[in-house]
Amino acid sequence: MSARVLVVDDIHANRRLMEAKLEAKYYTVLLAENGLDALEKARTERPHIILLDVMMPGMDGYEVCERLKQDDATRHIPVVMLTALNDREDRLRGLEAGADDFLSKPVDDFALMARLEALTRYNAVASELRQREATSAQAASLTDEEQNELSRSANILVVDAEQRIADRLITPLKAAGHFAMSWQDSQGGRAKSRDLDLIILSMSNQTYNPLKLCAHLRSMDSTRDVAIIVTCDPQDREIAAQALNLGASDIVQTPVDTQELLARVSTQLKRTRYIEILRRRVDRGLELAVIDQLTGLYNRRYMLSQLQQWMQRASVGGKPVSVIAFDIDHFKQVNDQHGHEAGDVVLQAFAERIRTNVRPKDIVCRPGGEEFLVILPETPGDLACVGAERIRHAIAADPFMLQRSAEEINVTVSAGVATFLGEDDTLANLLHRADTALYQAKQSGRNRVESVAA
Ligand SMILES: [Mg+2]
User: Which of 96, 146, 370, 423 is catalytic?
Assistant: First the structure.
């Protein structure tokens, strides 16, 4: 997987060196020599990742990062800051400025490639989800609640055969507000893996095969999306590289620097939670697209697509599909006499009564207003009439409660039944016949079921 990387550094030789390293790994490289240049290129060239030098004359890296993160057009681009060796102050300032990751100068090639690979993979998922979200303007910014979610405390599992080493990591994680426990303790306490947010997995341990464990965690539903940070001895880089290939999210070298670990933990948590938020939004978008928000029934769009599919099956030799069109009798009077709020209560109760009086395979829809439609798959017309009669009776049998006033009102419904006639029939004709039957029911005094003979 490749990516477009913007390299920002004030020193020409540094830019060229980085360019050569990245191009050797087939990244596409863009260069910027100062802050303004970087902001301009980030906006116009839309790089996937930005490698940003901290020390630059004029606008320094912190300010560039802040500005990138304030701009809707660039805030989603991960920024990796290049800081002086092990300078904690630098890193803290970088975090505050919104940096996504850090690398120490001089840049270690292995660490550089590990970060880029992890970011490239993350980018691929995040950008796909952002694209699937209906409104891209909304996608760039998170609500306050979602922002809080990114930084809430996490459940962290530390996997190291040596309890002493695990404890050395657990103490600072707890001090930072997380819930952390060792592998040994979790098995004693039977922690549920589904509640985990992050796993820290030692690669330098001999009592289990760390790569096998990494692959196993990625293959299980409960831990598939959990971030994994592997810790490894500088000599075990080959194993660490394989771990990345198996889906580990990041690498920290041993002996572990506590500050670095905490920064990487927070980065990984932010990424996995951001992905979670995007996934949820996509799901919600899909739901909004097919569900009527007032009643929870399927909307007109879904109704038409389902009907089309069942008609297609019927026309290639499947059993017939029927529909029942419902219209609440004198619904306008409910609204006029009791108000629109009462009208909504009736619509919701009405929907519920239909739902509890159909078979599991029937599809109950609210195409609009006080109209409802039930699709009855694999059902001939006479059976559909029986179903319609059952619903009509269930509506008329008991009055509806108007919540606020505890008042009761009687509601009745008229229904029209129609059945798909085979390949010469069309969706429009089928719905038209159901409407005609419904009209007849209204004309014949309401609170009744009619069907149109073919
Ligand atoms: Mg510099």
Answer: 370
Provide the whole-model pTM.
0.62
Domain boundaries, the chain: 1-136, 142-284, 300-451
7 alpha carbon – ligand 1 mean position (Å): 12
- Partners of 283 in the beta sheet? none
pLDDT band of 188, cuts 50, 70, 90: very low
Contact partners, residue 268, CB within 8 Å, separation at least 6: 198, 227, 229, 249, 250
What pLDDT does 86 receive? 62
Tens of pLDDT, residue by residue over 265-291, are: 988 998 889 888 888 888 777 777 888
> Parallel, antiparallel, or unpaired: how do β-strands 179-182 and 227-232 relate?
unpaired
Strands 371-376 and 363-368: antiparallel
Query: Is there a shared CATH topology between the 1-136 domain and the 142-284 domain?
Result: yes
Q: What's the topology of domain 1-136?
A: Rossmann fold (3.40.50)
Q: Where are the alpha helices (DSSP H) in 133-198?
A: 136-139, 144-151, 163-175, 183-189
Fold adopted by 142-284: Rossmann fold (3.40.50)
Whether 417 contacts 324, CB under 8 Å = yes
| Ion ligand 1 residue ranges (Cβ < 5 Å) | 10, 53, 55
The SS3 assignment for 404 reads coil
Kindly give the distance from the C-alpha atom of residue 11 to the centroid of ligand 1, in angstroms, as a whole number.
6
Give 10's Cβ-side CA count (13 Å radius).
13
Instruction: Determine how β-strand 322-328 pairs with β-strand 413-419.
Output: antiparallel
Contact of 47 with 41, CB cutoff 8 Å: yes
Torsion-angle region of residue 302: left (phi > 0), alpha (psi -120 to 50) or beta? alpha
What is the whole-number distance in angstroms between the Cα of residue 5 and the centre of ligand 1? 18
Residue 211: which H helix or E strand, with range?
Answer: helix 210-219
> How does pLDDT run across 134-152, given as a tens digit for each residue?
544 444 567 788 888 888 8
C-alpha of residue 54 to centroid of ligand 1, in Å = 6
Of the candidates 154, 99, 115, 175, the residue with the CA atom closest to the CA atom of residue 276 = 154
CATH pick for 300-451 out of 3.30.200.20, 3.40.50.720, 3.30.70.660, 3.30.70.270: 3.30.70.270
Catalytic site residue 45? no
